[in-house]
Request: fold
Amino acid sequence: MRTTGLRDYLDGPHKAARDVVRAGLSANAELLDLSLRLPRDEYRDKVLDVMLDVTAEGHPARGFPKEFGGEGDLGGFIAGFETLAFGDLSLMVKAGVQFGLFAGAILHLGTERHHDRYLADALSGRLLGCFAMTETGHGSNVQALGTTATYDASTGEFVVHTPTAAARKDYIGNAARHGRMAAVFAQLVVGGESQGVHCLLVPIRDESGTAMPGVTLSDCGPKLGLNGVDNGRIVFDHVRVPREALLDRYAQVDADGNYQSEIENPDRRFFTMLGTLVQGRVSVGGAAINASKVALTIAIRYGAQRRQFGAPGSAEEALLLDYRMHQRRLLPLLARTYALHFAQAELVDEFVRVFGDGSSEHDRRALEAQAAGTKALGTWHTTETIQMCREACGGAGYLAENRLATLKADTDVFTTFEGDNTVLLQLVAKGLLTDYRESFGKLDPLGTARFIAAQAVEIAVEKAALRPLIERLRDVVPNRSDANDPDAGLRDDAYHSGLLRFREEHMLSGVARRLKAGIDAGDEPFEVFNRCQDHVIAAGRAHVDRVVLEAFHAAVEDAPDELRDVLKDVYDLHALATIESERAWYLEHGRLSPGRSKAITALVNELCAAVRPVAVELVDAFGVPGSAVEVPMVVPSQHE
Reply:
């Protein structure tokens, strides 16, 4: 297998953007060690310096309009941002705050006057900014934020205020040290009436770094990781900003204090405003997946070099990666990383299409759900992968010099920022339930009957076309024709997809019936949903598992001939390991027999053995810069 060809295929159409960032990371390789050697404030300043160096190369502007020095290349911008995760993650997060969140808010929520006045400075780093949404008392529930922005018609100003301790802006990147302006999300009050959450640009420091009058800034202090990011807290005491500070793409306030918006429904207006910021969620998911690539590159290279024990009487100890259990620890995670990589690439393509073509609200909602699900599974995967890689490297993996400790600490927060993963899977499931209701009505007896009939027709069509495969979805019974070949059909793509689709649809229909039964019984809606919450989350995860699987399958089908066979092995390993991880559910629901379940486990073992000879090449194809993975416990790879 040619590593270069696989790397080019993984990099996809945005290879040039990825390579620019790789080169920048290599040129600033010393940053990886500074988090351990420098005092916190010096480390933060060095992260800022490197971010400004990267800015000078032009990458951050890539995704912005050409009139502001950009290239209008959203896909390349996200690809480059993801690639930053190969290096110091504080740098990646700080760049995300500055360019993705602060500049992104100006671009997507502001209008021409905001663009002309602020965007060029934000993209050059001359104006450092914050994204002040989260509060001490409210994180995920943005609609309930406590900060207020009250319009004073007598002066033509908004008065931004923190009314309670719970309304303090918290965990805000760039707030503790470097930020001069904040995109502040607050309840907009006009003429004594609240219009819901809107965003305003509020100066928080002057050019000398002194806090503006009425603004109190403090440092969140040391964190589990990402200490190169100056997270801080902001309190506003009746801070006045001009009327033009309101980012008014979706709602305007005139000089007389008249509020107007083309989107009359306040809930729809709120979700439209937040939907324009989905890019952050897309980017964080991709960055997390790339962080798992770094950990796997280190651990698999180490496992292919480190020897321990061996056959009795043998003078040579065995390589760690030749042990089946070591393969079991790492190679299914490698396969899932490939699957998530291709799912992320598919998501980025959809993001560019939706925001480039001015697609419908339905398309945007679908994109938000896809981004939420991919981010949730991607970041959970990263946490699991880095922990397993640390364990697989033993005591060496625990040493900070070998980088896994820093990776573990820096990525831990990914599961809760840009949306708590559990809340995000609720968003996925709610979207599916909405589509379910629209397709099958209110699930009255007639609607349910139609649903069951539709399933029956679909199964009949599948049986006619692929009868042997569909038959294998049922329990294996003794003396069947495949009794002597227990893994017959287990590598068929339709078998994998069929099982995952069945699980998704069964869970979705089940939770829909439970919700309807509770409402029909007259129970309070919140309590009904709360009783089903675990079922809702499971349905959302089952959906994303299926989407990821099918994205990987499509990538294998589209791969060049010389790559398809090895990618098919990795795909099969991912598919069967996913089914194996849920085999208790499939056994409970009659989709696997005990014999079939054992055959899947045996085949996962065989696939681990098949992937083992190319495992180092598979991680080298990620293209992680040598400075990030050539740690003391690992010698350089021969495949670079």
User: Anything to note?
Assistant: Residues 324-357 form the longest helix (34 residues). The longest strand covers residues 193-203. Residues 3-124 form a domain with the Butyryl-Coa Dehydrogenase, subunit A; domain 1 fold (CATH 1.10.540.10). The chain has three domains: 3-124, 129-276, 279-309+317-627.
